[in-house]
Amino acid sequence: MLEQNNLLNSLIDEIGKADVDRAINQLQELYQKGYISEPQYTFSEKYDKNGNPIWECTCFLDSLNNGQGFVVCDCSKKQAKKKAAYEMVMLYLGE
Fold first, then answer.
1. Which long-range CB contacts under 8 A does 27-36 form with residues at least 24 apart?
2. What one-character-per-residue DSSP string does 5-67 give?
3. Predicted TM-score (pTM) of this structure
4. CA distance 23 to 15
5. Which tens digit of pLDDT belongs to each residue from 38-89?
6. 62 bridge partner residues
7. Are the CB atoms for 22 and 16 separated by under 8 Å?
8. How far apart are CA 43 and CA 78, in angstroms?
9. H or E segment at 70?
10. Which are the contacts of 63, defined by CB distance < 8 A and separation ≥ 6?
11. Which of 76, 95, 93, 89 is nearest to 22 (CA)?
12. In Å, how far are 2, 31, 49 from 24, measured between CA atoms?
């Protein structure tokens, strides 16, 4: 009956459309609501030929493909984390 009357909540109803600036919070919401395992992030810092930092962030979930995740690089640690989380949100929303 719920499905016939279009009353079932979708993940977009739960967290909204994927948004790179809200992606970390969106993943946290999915975790708190029991849709996914807790998001994990790992970081490593490298340097380009000019000595500028390049942050590599991996976002992964234990419940997804044996912990495989998305790896993103950026000159900012915070932006790398946002972008990696965004890729994971996009995966879950099917976009």
1. 27/59, 27/85, 27/88, 27/89, 30/89, 30/92, 35/11, 35/92, 36/61, 36/63, 36/64, 36/92
2. TT-SPPHHHHH-S--TTTHHHHHHHHHHTTSSPPPEEEEEEEE-TTS-EEEEEEEE-TTSGGG
3. 0.83
4. 9
5. 999 999 999 999 999 999 999 998 876 666 688 999 999 999 999 999 999 9
6. none
7. yes
8. 10
9. strand 69-74
10. 36, 37
11. 89
12. 30, 11, 30
Contact 26, 85 (CB under 8 A): yes
Token duo for residue 44: 């490593």
Q: Can you read off the two tokens belonging to residue 75? A: 């000159």
- Tokens for 1, please give them: 């009956």
Please tell me the distance from the alpha carbon of residue 38 to that of residue 63, in angstroms, as a whole number.
9
